[in-house]
Amino acid sequence: MQRIEAQKLKFLSWVPEKNNHPRRNIYGGRGGDMVTLVVATSADPASIGPASSLLAMPGWHPGPSVQDAASYANKDARLIKLEKRLVLENHLDKRWEEATGETVNDVIFLSKHVASSNRPALTIHPIGTPHVHEGEALTAGGKPRWAAPPNPRIGPWFRLLKNIAHSHNLIPEFEVTLEATHHGPEINSPTMFVEIGSTEEYWKRQDAAQAIALLVWQGLGLGGSTAVGDWSRDNDRNKILLGIGGGHYVPRHMDIVQKEGVWVGHLLSGYSLLMEDPGEAKVPASSAAVGGTWRETIRVAFETTKLAFPGGEVLAHLDHKSFKGWQRNAITGFLAEQKIKIGKPGDFGPC
């Protein structure tokens, strides 16, 4: 990341308290506090709509201006309004930290969702481009062989979003779904995208925007209730699902994540597992006999999921029917070589 010119940043002010109490950031919380960064852009109606609905809720006040972008603070949440495409806003967590002195715990991007089906949808997904070759064009951000740590809130917030959508009568018109890991921006903090799809008519829907705003409001505990999906508090050393295989909307993995108490990391669709057909050798002697970038894709997804869930046990969950026999054999062999355990549906959730 390029160094950010100091003159372009406006730093938070700090004020000492009397009686030798620790000094506090004037935007809320103590200096060096962990904050959740919620990111919106005026370039996207499905992003700025939920952000505006969220800011209409109580407790927000002006935050620092970072590189001329306005922000707002509410407890440990920070909402920043940008003007560019979100998938190109690389290293936003580090830029925030350098500008404010606050440590970013996790990042939530509010965005539109585009699908060829044009079906109205509310979606959540982790980000990354671990399957991309060096030198391959990246039209939606990221970088080759990279993935951000998945935000631990993904599973719990998916279930919360379904409940909110039901209570606001958005279902069955809107589908509430997870998506496979895809696109950028490049970032190092645990991250997820929360999206409204799939056409301009729905990107601008106020009821959908309010549902997403309520998701963030309740999910972060801004109304006084307990935050949802706080791994550091709720994990109880549970197992984490690493989804491997299936379509973009990962139906077999989503069936499990819908169960209460399930945590989910990266979700790798079949199209991200680039495997070279071994031809006559349909039962390869080892996983190394099957070429392609699929091994590195799984390795990156596993390592970044481990990073996002300290103390947890990451188990691979395979959509077995989505693979041909030789693909399934190669993947299970590679997982064994890497000492990555394979979980069954009953292995996930509270013990």
Provide key terms for this protein.
single chain, 351 residues, alpha/beta, eight-stranded mixed sheet, three-stranded parallel sheet, 9 helices, 21% strand
How would you describe the overall organization of this protein?
The chain is α/β, with parallel strands linked by helices and 351 residues long. The strands form 4 sheets. An 8-stranded mixed β-sheet has the order 4-5-6-3-7-12-8-11. The chain has a 3-stranded parallel β-sheet with strand order 14-13-15, with helices on both faces. Strands 1-2 form a two-stranded antiparallel sheet. A hairpin with an 8-residue loop joins strand 4 and strand 5. The longest helix is centred in the C-terminal third of the chain and has 15 residues.
Helices, by number, come to: 9
Runs with pLDDT <50, length 5+? 1-27
Order of helices and strands: EEEHEEEHEEEEHEEHHHEHEHEH
Helix share bin? 25-40%
Strand ordering within the main sheet: 4-5-6-3-7-12-8-11
Largest sheet: 8 strands, mixed
Mean pLDDT over the residues: 89
The rounded Rg comes to 21 Å
Q: Strand portion, in percent?
A: 15-25%
Query: Could you give the count of β-strands?
Result: 15
Please state the overall shape, judged from the principal axes of the Cα atoms. Answer: globular
Terminal Cα span: 42 Å
